[in-house]
Amino acid sequence: MNKALAPLLVLGTLAVGTAAFTQSFPVTLGFGKGPAQPIAFPHDVHAGKLQMDCLYCHYSAEKSPVSNIPTLETCMGCHKVAAVDRPEIQKMAAMYAKGETPQWTEVYRLPDHVKFNHERHVKSGVECQSCHGPVQEMRTMYQYSSLKMGWCIDCHRDNVEKNPVLMDCITCHH
Prior knowledge:
There is one protein chain. By secondary structure, the protein is mainly alpha-helical. The chain contains 8 helices and no strands. The protein has a domain of 111 residues. 41% of the residues lie in helices and 0% in strands. The longest helix is centred in the first third of the chain and has 19 residues. About 7% of the residues have low confidence.
C-alpha cells in the first residue's frame, strides 16, 4: 500500500466509525431527565393543571422558525399577583426587579446542519406534544424524543400524503 494513502485510510475509517457510533445514540441534553434550571418551572402545573396553551408563553413558535423561551416579563404578567408567596416566584420576581435574565439551560439542541421550523409545524397542526412529549405531565422539562434523523423521517413519512415536500432533504438540511 502507498504510504501516502495509509493515513487517509486510517482517518477515513475513524470518521466512518465515529459517525456510526454517534448516530447510534440520541442527540441529548436533557434526555429523559431535565437539566436543573435557575428557576424551577413546573410545566405540569402550567400546561397540565392550569391547562395553559403552550403558545401563551412560547408565542413565537407560531410566528417564527425559532420558539422563544418566555421572558420574565411574560411570567410576571401573572405572577405579580399569583402565587407570590412561593420561593421560586419570589426568586423570579427579584430577578425581574433587578432587570436580570435567567441563564436557562438548553433542553433541546439539533446539530448545526439541521434546521427545524417551529412556525411551519405549528401552522401544519402538529401538536407540541408530538415532539416534546407529555409536557403537561412534566415537573421538569426534559428531552422526550431522540431527535435522531430516523425519528423525524418517520413522522414526515407518515404525513407525506398531506405535504409531499416533506421528504425532500432540503426541507430539514441546509
